[in-house]
Amino acid sequence: MTERLGAPPPEGFVRVRMTVAYDGTPFHGFAINNGVRTVQGDLEAALTTVMRNPTTIACAGRTDRGVHARGQVVSFDVDPARFDPERLERGLNQMLAPAVAVQACEIVPDAFDARLSCKARSYRYRVLNTKVPDPLLTNLAWHMRDPLDLASMRLAADRILGVHDFRTFSKRNKSRPDDTYVREVSRADWSRHGDTFQFDITARAFTHQMVRSLVALFVDIGRGRRRAVDVGAALAAQDRTAAPSPAPPHGLVLWQAHY
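Request: output the structure for the sequence above.
Response:
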């Protein structure tokens, strides 16, 4: 069985890294949550069945309910005598389809940990900007009827680059009141692809609901309800009421974990 995060594999076991994609729609987030379906719960149950050994996983990022992933990375420990990458991928994909897909798995050094070894995470958020919603994109993009101005949204995104305190854009963790909200953003950019506005952001780590809260403010700016300079004022306020409620989760994708 896997030991606690950060510990080496038990004697006789090896560590495996696996890349996973999933549609977050049917899940109540990634992390185990008693009484509801989660990505981690489905993955661990499938791994335990295929590997015939209780298996616990670590992940690059714990996505919220309804949030998707294209490049989620997980790590876990296995008995090498039972590890066959092709058989494991095939078995997991048969059991987890259609909501979850395993893209690759390989043995890695014992020190690797999907969370602790991750150097940065990239998220992508999509906004469909049309008068009429598209039923085929209902679970993949936030529909916004009002016209959006790309230039003002890009200017606003530039203002979060670098190191800032993102307290205004974060959901507080009542059980950890001393948490820091300081993060360094290395990429924050809006682009347009037909009727879809796409926001890409990269940082070593994010606070809870940070990306969705930033998107909500940027969309308000794109609609002309606020100005790009309001981003600086919101950051300086360090007050959750200085920013709008988070954008819906279904537009957000954990795009890549960087190692």
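The radius of gyration is 20 Å.
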